[in-house]
Amino acid sequence: MDMPPALDNALLLRQPILDAKQEPAGYALHFVGAGAPGVDAAFAELGLGAALANRPVLLRADARLIMDEIVERLPADVILELDLAGALDAALLDRCRALRAGGRALALPADTDDAGRAALLPLADVVGVDARADDAELAARVADLAGAADGRRPRILADGVDTRERMARCRELGCDLFRGFHFARPRPVEGRGMNTSQLGIIRLLNQVAREADAHDLEEGFKREPGLTVNLLRLVNSVGVGAAQKVDSLRHAIAILGRKQLLRWLQLLLMASPSGGAPERDPLLQLAAQRGGLMERLAALRAPADRALAEEAFLVGVMSLMPAALGQPIEDILAQIPVAEPVHRALAAREGELGPLLALVEALDDGDAARCDALLAGLPPLARGSVTASLCAVLVWLHGDRENA
User: Fold this and answer.
1) What residues pair up with 61 in beta bridges, in sequence order?
2) Number of domains comprising the chain
């Protein structure tokens, strides 16, 4: 995917937004170093708008972007999150009123100053509250929004939800939306074991990674009937490319291929034990996104080294296994054999893939300064190439994968 010149110096930061069921409800996007043309290019030229269609997007918008006519061309699902930093004047307020009257939804961040909050609150469809605030202050803020005198209740977005305890408290108070990576934080529990399904997947991962022969691999699947059914469904699904229905394990494994089988098993290990749909599992979505981004960035650094790109995908996915399995990465690596570059990256952020993983983690944390520091040691990667790669991954995850 080519990089539009308007985005050469832009870094795209994004965070998932979850609903009260803890299922994905959209994204919050912030383009660091990009003006209005860059934002327009990301949605139009890089296909971000089509990929995120029907998914609410909170786009951080400063005064210059708000006043630019480009915002009127953004997809209807884009909600402008007003980043005014004390710049609210009569002209800007009139512009916000006009956008709202024209159907554009607006959001107020949790850090909006009191003057801006008072003037813009009647226009806001989404209002942020700081989940890290003192408990009494947070409760009072949510109660004020829920009991507005005019009866108009905006959706309340809890911002900075970085622990499961904060998420539970905000949901208890009545917040509607939640922004933060609480669901992806490691939660090791000493002595916790994996369930039967997870152990079965790990046994198969071991067989695939050690290149067991087809007979042994087939026997391994036969001991896991649930996985066998899922594998046959996957291979027979639209897009896998089988010209005929597959009803034998050996044929299914041959069609899928060992590399794809390894990826599928790793993502399956990340999935929620409740068995919900993958698109409603935020951790699984983040794992696939992180793996895809790692793969693309590794390919940009070493275009001829396909093995490195495949290892990068595994690093991205496995980096979130502590959150999925409740075990330290050291314990997970002791159970799942991985190549030495993958092990070094996951255990110590070392080797060729370690700095790439650190970069992707800094991107998740919204730490632009840390990203810039890491990019200085990762030529030829730069802000623009990371942003283009991330847009391509979001298109791959949510849009037309053939054109990603």
Assistant:
1) 82
2) 2
What is the CATH classification number for the domain harbouring 45?
3.20.20.450
Domain enclosing residue 129, as ranges: 5-181
**Number of residues assigned to the chain:** 404
Kindly report the pTM of this predicted structure: 0.84
Distances (CA, A) of 358 to 4, 341, 361: 26, 14, 5
> Does pLDDT of 404 surpass 80?
no
Cis peptide before 278 (omega within 30 of 0): no
| Residue labelled with tokens 């639209």 | 238
| Helix, coil or strand: residue 220 | helix
Residue 389 maps to a domain: no
What's the farthest any 2 CA atoms get from each other in the chain? Answer: 74
Domain stop point among 158, 181, 204: 181
Same domain, 15 and 149: yes
- Of 222, 240, 272, the position where a domain reaches its end is 272
Reported as type and span, the H/E element at residue 128 is strand 126-130
> Does 82 have pLDDT greater than 70?
yes
Residue 243 confidence (pLDDT)? 55
8-40: string of b/e by CB count within 10 Å (b at 16+)? bebbbbbbbbbeeebebbbbbbbbbbbbbebbb
Spatial distance between the Cα atoms of 11 and 30, rounded to a whole number of angstroms: 8
